[in-house]
Amino acid sequence: MAVTVHLANYLRPFAAERGEVVLSSAGSVREALAQLPIGVRDRVLDGAGAARQHVNLFVNQTHVKELGGLEATLVDGDHLHILPAVSGG
């Protein structure tokens, strides 16, 4: 089972400049994040293991909040996108 994790530009320096990481197995978003380099994880998850407020996580095109949060199930071929929140006016 392969899951592709797409990293926003600000995370690439913490993943050897890679824009994506292919994981051979990850049953949930939390499991996928646990396999990423620690520098990426530290910028995505807070000390309690929750997604930081300024980070958006999408499985394919659906926000993980709509799929059950970090426990959202991943299946073969899924794409996990890690993007910064954008705000302003």
Question: What is the H-and-E element order?
Answer: EEHHEEE
CATH topology (level 3) name = Ubiquitin-like (UB roll)
Radius of gyration: 12 Å
Largest sheet: 5 strands, mixed
Number of strands: 5
Q: Could you state the CATH homologous superfamily? A: Beta-grasp domain
What coarse outline follows from CA principal-axis ratios? globular
Strand content: 15-25%
Briefly, what CATH class?
A: Alpha Beta
- Class by alpha and beta content: alpha+beta
Low-confidence segments, given as residue ranges, are: none
> What is the overall pLDDT average?
95
CATH architecture call = Roll
- With strands numbered from the N-terminus, the spatial order across the biggest sheet is 2-1-5-3-4
Provide the helix percentage: 10-25%
Number of DSSP helices? 2
Domain module tally? 1
- How far apart are the first and last residues' alpha carbons, in Å? 41 Å
**Oligomer designation:** single chain
Explain what you see:
The protein is α+β, with helices and mostly antiparallel strands. The chain has a single domain (3-84), classed as Ubiquitin-like (UB roll), CATH 3.10.20. Helix content is 15%, strand content 25%. It is built from two helices and five strands. The protein has helices spanning 29-34, 38-44, and strands spanning 3-7, 20-23, 55-59, 62-63, 79-84. A five-stranded mixed beta sheet has the order 2-1-5-3-4, with no helix packed on it. A hairpin with a 2-residue loop joins strand 3 (55-59) and strand 4. The protein is globular, with a radius of gyration of 12 Å. The chain starts with a strand and ends in a 5-residue tail after the last strand. The model has no long low-confidence stretch (mean pLDDT 95).
